[in-house]
Amino acid sequence: EVKRKQRGSYRFHENRMSQRIYENTLLAKDLEKAPHNDELFLVFQPQVALQRQTVIGCEALLRWRHPDRGVISPAVFIPLAEERGLIHQVGRWVLYESCRQARSWLDQGISFGGVGVNISSLQLLAQGFFEQVKDALELHQLPGSLLELEITETVLVQDIHQAELVMNQLRALGIRFSIDDFGTGYSSLLYLQRLPIGRLKLAQEFVRDTLLSSGSQGQNEAVVAAALQLGKNLNIPVIAEGIETFAQFDWLREKGCDEGQGYLFAKPMMASDFGTFVHDVESYGILPQPAESAST
Ligand code: C2E
Ligand code: MG
Ligand code: MG
Ligand code: MG
């Protein structure tokens, strides 16, 4: 009795697993065609200076409009792309499209500050990455100083020598680097000093859980404060990701955090809306305008 049940449940799990692998294979097939089928697009999330209250740049975030499944999150298809070796084509599309968009903002006279592009460690460490970035900049006549590459700490663990080599080459083009999701990985503090790192992007996990209960000074607050202090000591600016509440904004600013990004200021938006956002910040500052009172 029991044995039969266990076998049944084992087979059930096995089926579920092969089902998932099968579905991922189908999805990967679709993803392979996505760049050519016009199914990929970028949204841009503004980054702001917390004290000066200006727009300092934006982050390009990839979206995939699947013909049957609707818009799929990069949290789903980026890991798949990395697994199936598709990240190079997908990442290439993101890079060229980000440079094209930045060029277009320049031509429209929009002071966007710079564009941040997420780079998988597989891309950075792949042969020909430097040439690819150089070509994307040249094609769109974009100064390297307007491009920031966001890498994660995993890249430093995987092949620090190759990473350092290509980072220095790219730095010579004026390109800046930031460490994404800082605090969740394993980067040695030594490398932070040795590598050309322009800023630390404090992982939103820490920021999100900061000040959840009013007045609390818990572990997250301690981690954030320590990261900010580290940035100060190494002379690397820190940008806090995932700022959602005014309390978090206030607390971070008080702790000396330079820059921020999060739903409090703006969600990722279409490129065409970014110019309006920059204009609004110039007129009203970085915080959303209070909604007009309904009672009057
Ligand atoms: P990330 O680079 O850490 O990007 C920040 C993520 O947090 C984005 O999610 C953004 O929409 C979200 N976010 C921003 N502010 C807030 C906030 O206040 N609250 C909350 N809850 N979330 C906020 P998204 O766009 O879904 O991207 C998820 C991840 O997918 C990114 O994390 C990045 O690791 C990866 N990704 C996105 N685009 C690309 C790409 O072009 N290439 C690569 N390799 N990875 C990408
Ligand atoms: Mg990022
Ligand atoms: Mg991040
Ligand atoms: Mg991330």
What does this structure look like?
- Helices cover 49% and strands 17% of the residues.
- It has twelve helices and nine strands.
- An eight-stranded mixed beta barrel has the order 1-2-4-5-6-7-8-9, surrounded by four helices.
- Strand 6, helix 8 and strand 7 form a beta-alpha-beta unit.
- The longest helix is centred in the first third of the chain and has 32 residues.
- The mean pLDDT is 90.
- The site of ligand C2E has 23 residues, from strand 2, helix 2, helix 3 and strand 6.
Topology record:
Elements: H1 2-33, E1 40-49, E2 55-66, E3 70-72, H2 74-83, H3 87-107, E4 115-118, H4 121-124, H5 129-139, E5 147-152, H6 153-158, H7 160-171, E6 176-182, H8 189-194, E7 199-202, H9 204-208, H10 219-234, E8 238-240, H11 246-254, E9 259-260, H12 271-284
Parallel strand pairs: 2-4, 4-5, 5-6, 6-7, 7-8, 8-9
Antiparallel strand pairs: 1-2, 1-9, 2-3
Helix pairs in contact: 3-5
The structure holds ligand C2E and magnesium ion (3 copies).
One magnesium ion is lined by residues 59, 118, 150, 180.
Domain EAL: 24-282
Keywords: Membrane, Transmembrane, Transmembrane helix
Protein name: Diguanylate cyclase
